[in-house]
Amino acid sequence: MDIKAKYCIPTEYQKTILDSFSKNDSLKEFNNDKYTILPGFCDVHVHFREPGFSYKETIKSGAMAAARGGYTAVCTMPNLNPVPDSVESLKIQQDIIDRDACINVLPYGAITVGEKGEELSDMENMKDNVVAFSDDGRGLQRYEMMERAMDEAKRLNKIVVAHCEVNELLKGGYIHDGEYAKAHNHKGICSASEYEQIARDCEIAKKTGAKYHVCHISTKESVEIIRQAKKDGVDVTCETAPHYLILDDSNLKEEGKWKMNPPLRSKEDKKALIQGIKDGTIDCIATDHAPHSQEEKAKGLEKSPFGIVGIETAFQELYTNLVLTGVISLEKLINLLVVNPRKRFSIPLGEDFSIWDLNKKVVIDPKDFLSMGKATPFEGDEVVGENEITVYNGKIVYKK
């Protein structure tokens, strides 16, 4: 069929996606200029909680939520039980993925055994079955252990992906060490706990020549350290999350849905992050989708666990707050959500796309989520854009 629908697809992916769209008779109703075809998004940082914590999320529910958000590829973090630190423990997770995932779900392998930071995992034997290596959920504290990990990753041609956090600087904090924390008598997390470890890791990456990717950066200092490292020839990339680009600690309320790690930082940090995505210092946007039970997140800022959900709202929030306001173009957003993460992590894009009504206004309501997690600071937001359908590998995996 002749394509009348609008589309925003990078040239390298256009033929495959548009051919798939045009030959699928069940998509005829979307072939008009009311709709826009977008390539399948890729999220390199999600927590699907299975095995070990399936009361929070399952691979099945997480993958369905991702498809609703327009995602056709996700990378699942290894803070699971058992931790995927060996071929045997990794297979437990992979078997569930093979059985239950409706999209491309790619597991991370842990850097260290049990994510305890004491001895390297079986990186060599896992390398062909993981997208990269990470101990996400905690920072790797010892310099020599990170150096050994990067040496091994370099040898195996894999990426080291780091949650950067200096434990001795945390001091029991749970929100940003800023004005809100002071005004409401909360314990704060200082920015240095993030950026000091990024600086250390960039030094090690330069020394070893390893591929290094930094998770969910949130501070202005982190942006500048990575910007300088790139100028110095370090093979470093990084991500931030939608909430750090849209919200800051002045938005905080006394509810668990405002608690994540790293925390929402200052207005100055948010401004630096936006500049970082505009100038290319920040390579991609990942959601850090981190579901918990409603009971866990009902315990307020201090007592609830870190983590919010975001994979079903990411594109809508970014499109509404960054594209429609003229901060970045839709093409730039597609680079951050599709092109850059897929290229960095060698994740192919085939017949993967979603079809959106980019004029439709909707209100974010967690009751509509396919994710088992419902905690989002975006609850009640009016956003523009609604996903009608997601196609993965030429097959419809979500329909509104």
What are the salient characteristics of this protein?
single chain; TIM Barrel; 5-stranded mixed β-sheet; 5-stranded parallel β-sheet; 14 helices; about 20% strand
What does this protein structure show overall?
There is one protein chain. This protein has a single domain, classed as TIM Barrel. Helix content is 35%, strand content 18%. The chain contains 14 helices and 15 strands. A five-stranded mixed β-sheet has the order 1-2-13-14-15. It has a five-stranded parallel β-sheet with strand order 6-7-10-11-12. The chain starts with 5 loop residues before the first strand and ends with a strand. 55% of the residues are buried. The model has no long low-confidence stretch (mean pLDDT 97).
Concise description?
Helix content is 35%, strand content 18%. It has helices at 11-23, 59-68, 87-100, 123-126, 143-156, 179-183, 192-208, 220-231, 242-246, 267-279, 294-297, 300-303, 314-323, 330-344, and strands spanning 6-7, 36-39, 41-46, 71-76, 104-107, 133-134, 159-162, 175-176, 188-189, 211-214, 236-240, 284-285, 353-363, 382-392, 395-399.
Strand content: 15-25%
> Gyration radius, to the nearest Å?
20 Å
- CATH top level? Alpha Beta
> What CATH architecture would you give?
Alpha-Beta Barrel
- Tally of helical runs: 14
* Count of individual domains: 1
Report on the biggest sheet.
Answer: 5 strands, mixed
Overall pLDDT confidence = 97
Order of helices and strands: EHEEHEHEHEHEEHEHEHEHHEHHHHEEE
Overall form: globular
Give the number of DSSP strands. Answer: 15
